[in-house]
Design goal:
This protein is α/β, with parallel strands linked by helices. The protein is 51% helix and 9% strand. A five-stranded parallel beta sheet has the order 2-3-4-1-5, with helices on both faces. Helix 5 links the parallel strand 3 and strand 4.
């Protein structure tokens, strides 16, 4: 198994394992997910599937390769993380030198955590490697918000979203607020329930992620269609995306979230 990530990610896990079994592995991937998910652990699970000699698409848990990955001492895997607040050009240059070295096994694997923090210069340098990766090298970028990356970087990577592994406080809050909305509550009641999520940008981002998951599950379930319409769910999801755009435009969390809550009570 690539990683036990909860029901939200079962389809993603199955898809990745199938890609490995069918030998349809790309040279570059972006895994995006919220800050409370251990994206490096998810990447390690995927890498096990890629490098494991049994070729089952999953971690066999028995071979020396899987063991080395578990213990963080596989010769062909290198991790790059931010230095201070960003990943600078020097780190990308180090990656480019490392990736040229002949691997001990089948391929070199480069994992870039916090790739959202790559400087513009570092992104330009990385683009050259993504355009012409040496051999069967595999590059994995881990991101909280891939939209911070240049379109040219995004266009050269296969992109996947990792959802939260377990129900969080934000999931509970989102579920309650959406239930209030369906029940016909007033705007000020939603504002009161949102509380600190209106004032803290990080919490606002997390709540938006949770609200989108709740609406998605409602759309998939469809067992209570008398209380809501699929068209309304789609409209609210679009409103969530608009709230994200407002946050990215550096608008205050309170303004961005209140606009969304107002639409939820219309």
């Amino acid at each position: 198994m690539i990683l036990d990530t909860g029901r939200d990610n079962l389809r993603l896990k199955d898809r990745l394992e199938r890609l490995v079994r069918e030998k349809r592995i790309s040279h570059a991937y972006i895994f995006e997910g919220p800050s409370d998910i251990d994206k490096e652990a998810f990447a390690r699970g995927f890498i096990k599937g890629v490098l494991c000699p049994k070729g089952l698409g999953e971690n066999c848990g028995q071979c020396s390769i899987c063991s080395k990955i578990d213990h963080g001492n596989h010769e062909d895997i290198t991790y790059f993380r931010k230095d201070g607040l960003s990943i600078k050009d020097a780190s990308v240059l180090a990656l480019q030198e490392k990736i040229k070295v002949k691997p001990v096994g089948d391929r070199n694997v480069m994992v870039i955590s916090d790739c959202d923090t790559l400087t513009a210069k570092a992104q330009n340098s990385l683009l050259k490697t993504l355009e012409e990766p040496p051999g069967d090298a595999l590059i994995i970028l881990l991101s909280e918000n891939m939209e911070n990356l240049a379109p040219t970087i995004l266009s050269r990577c296969v992109k996947f979203r990792i959802d939260a592994q377990t129900e969080s406080l934000e999931d509970e809050k989102a579920g309650k607020m959406i239930e209030m909305s369906i029940s016909g509550c007033r705007f000020h009641e939603l504002v009161h329930e949102a509380g600190d999520y209106l004032r803290d940008r990080t919490k606002a981002w997390m709540l938006l992620d949770s609200m989108e998951r709740v609406y998605r599950d409602m759309a998939i379930d469809g067992s209570d269609a008398r209380r809501y319409r699929f068209e309304d769910i789609c409209r609210y999801v679009n409103s969530i995306e608009e709230a994200r755009i407002r946050l990215k435009q550096k608008m205050s969390a309170e303004y961005a979230m209140k606009e969304l809550l107002l639409e939820m009570t219309e």
